[in-house]
Every structure is written in C-alpha cells, then in structure tokens.
Design goal:
Elements: H1 8-15, H2 19-27, H3 34-47, H4 53-60, E1 65-70, H5 76-86, H6 89-92, E2 95-100, H7 105-117, E3 122-125, H8 132-136, E4 142-145, E5 153-157, H9 159-172, E6 177-182, H10 192-204, E7 209-213, H11 220-237, E8 243-247, H12 250-264, E9 271-277, H13 280-284, E10 290-293, H14 296-314, E11 327-330, E12 333-335
Parallel strand pairs: 1-2, 1-3, 3-4, 4-5, 5-11, 6-7, 6-8, 8-9, 9-10
Antiparallel strand pairs: 10-12
Length: about 350
C-alpha cells in the first residue's frame, strides 16, 4: 500500500496543537517555547514526517537557494573558495546554484536571469564582467568577493598588505631584481592592491624592479603557454642575477615553478618565488611555494554571514534596507615555504 503523506492536520491532531501552531514551528520556530518545539519535533519523528520542500516554497516563496557566479575553476583559488562556500550549508542550511562564467559577459547576464527565475534569495558573485551598479539593480541581496564593489556589499582580502608582505619577503632574500607578474588589473579591483604594494616597496627601498602585466589566458594550458615566453625573457634579461618573483596567484606561481624544475631539475639558487592565495597547490607543489595566504575559509564564512544578514532582513514584515554597502576586509597571512629563505 502507498504510504500516506503526513500533513499539518495529522501533526496537529497528534500533538493537540492548532495547524497555525504547527505552521509557526516550520516558518517561525522562535515564536514557540522550547518545550512546544520539542513536542512537535518528537511528533515528526513518531509520524515519520518527510517535509515537502516544493510545497513549502509555494507556501512562503522562500527557496533557500543562493546563486554563485564564479569566473573559472582552473585557478585553484576559485575552486577552493567554492568548496568553502558550499561547506557553509552545515551552518546556514542554504543550497547553492553555481554557474561558471568564463569571463563572458553575455553568459553572466543569462545566468543571472536563470538564477532570478529560480527565485534565489541571494547571490555571491566572484565573476567580474558586470559592474556592481548593475548587480545592485537586480534588487536581491548580493555579496561580492574580490571584485569591484562600489554598489554591493563585499568581502575582500587586504590585497595591498599582501603585496607589501610578498615583496618585503623577497627583499629580505636580498635579490638583485624584483619582478611582479600579473594581469592588467583595473584600479577599482581589489587585486590591484597587489600591484601597488609591490611598487611601493620597490620605490621606498629604491629596488631595481620590473612590473610585467600580460593577459595570461583563461585556462591552465593558455596560462602555461603565455608564461613560458615571459620566463624565457626573464632568463635572458637577468642572467646571473638573483631574481625575486612575485606571482599574482598560486596557480601561476606553480606554472613558473614547473618551468624552472623542467629546465634545471631543481629550484635554482638564483630564484626566489612567492605566490598569492595559499590555495592547496602552493603546499602540495613539488617544492612547496611561499605565498600570501588569503584565509579563504574566513572569506567564505564572512561572505555568507553578510549575505544571510541581508536575506534575514528581507524576511521581516518591515525590512530596513542598508543605508550603504558593507565592505569587510580580511587580513592576509604571509606563509614562508621552500621557494624563499
């Protein structure tokens, strides 16, 4: 025989409470005493109640879905960030719909339309092809991470401090030439702080330096292909000099490390190397790489906490919108490994 679906009426009859009280247990449990909450919880167990999520969504319009827009998954930072955001389900109970945008503006807009059609309650945005002003126009709680954020709440690493930390470490290693390799980052993007930090240390200490800004591609094979000629140029231009290289992220630092190992069979004495992120590739590389740790777990937790705060406010009878976006900054941690002394 088909098993009977347990209804609110069944639970009310079993407990002696009204259906309104049962509804409050599911939608506003704090309005009930702990004793009554426990009585209803015990009844759900005794009746083997299975919640109908679809019916609940239709009843209150709350999907418990959060959308995530992420640029790519080949950079280890993004895959680790996604992993940490998904892990917040244990704390907050929100489910996630994830789209990988691959730096395509049209695709990102399409994905946002789809997310809104699913009645998401909020979004976490790491992709960066659409301005924060346009994102704010969708009138859904949003938190951005490591991208332009003038009109949206955000959580970012103190990238400028990270740039200072990385370059200062290379300076302590007494290099002859200091090199920072990055993409051509717009000044309004938080990661631009890495460039400023590098330049300020080099200027203040009057260090010989070179800033190399180049399109490094959107995949591991592309990045490997484009970093190779940069490496060959550095080899030729700075032969017999001790080279301190600050890469913009751990994935690119690992590509450069691989090029060095393939050529020399080991990490050569005339190189020092620092990455950025402290994604797993930095500690698991054939030679563990020094890096600036972004505290990715903390960034994810702060972002979700800030988003949940906004989503909870929206659920109130008279929600109070934020007067201005909230921007939280997480301090980076310098991690010294085998590519610096």
């Amino acid at each position: 025989m088909a098993k009977k679906n347990i209804t609110f009426s069944d639970i009310a009859q079993y407990t002696g409470f009204s259906k309104t009280t049962i509804s409050r247990y599911f939608n506003n449990p704090d309005s009930l005493t702990l004793e009554n909450q426990q009585k209803i919880a015990d009844a759900l167990t005794a009746l083997d109640y299975k919640e109908n999520k679809v019916a609940r969504i239709l009843a209150n319009g709350k999907t418990e879905f959060v959308g995530i827009l992420i640029p790519n998954l080949y950079l280890h930072y993004y895959s680790q960030m996604l992993n940490q955001i998904l892990a917040t389900y244990e704390t907050y109970g929100y489910k996630f719909l994830v789209f990988v945008c691959n730096d395509k503006e049209a695709a990102e807009r399409q994905y946002i339309r789809e997310l809104l059609a699913y009645q998401i309650e909020g979004m976490i945005v790491l992709s960066h092809t659409i301005s924060s002003e346009e994102l704010a126009s969708f009138h859904v709680p949003i938190v951005t991470i490591e991208r332009e954020d003038r009109y949206t709440c955000s959580v970012n690493t103190d990238n400028y401090m990270g740039g200072l930390q990385a370059t200062s470490l290379l300076y302590k290693n007494q290099c002859d030439i200091y090199i920072h390799i990055n993409t051509d980052v717009p000044p309004e993007t938080p990661a631009y702080g890495r460039i400023r930090g590098f330049q300020d240390i080099c200027r203040d200490q009057q260090l010989p330096h070179e800033l190399i800004l180049s399109d490094l591609g959107n995949s591991y094979p592309e990045a490997s292909k484009r970093i190779l000629p940069i490496f060959e140029s550095i080899e030729k231009k700075y032969a017999n000099q001790k080279k301190g290289i600050f890469m913009s992220n751990d994935t690119h630092a690992n590509i450069l490390l691989n090029l060095l190992i393939r050529k020399y069979g080991t990490f050569p004495e005339d190189y020092r190397l620092v990455g950025f992120d402290n994604s797993p590739i930095s500690s698991e590389a054939i030679i563990p790489t020094s890096t600036v740790g972004q505290q990715i777990d903390k960034l994810a937790q702060e972002a979700m906490e800030l988003l949940v705060m906004q989503m909870n406010e929206r659920k109130k009878r008279k929600p109070v919108p934020l007067a201005e976006p909230i921007h939280r900054i997480v301090t980076p941690v310098l991690i010294c490994r085998d590519t610096t002394w």
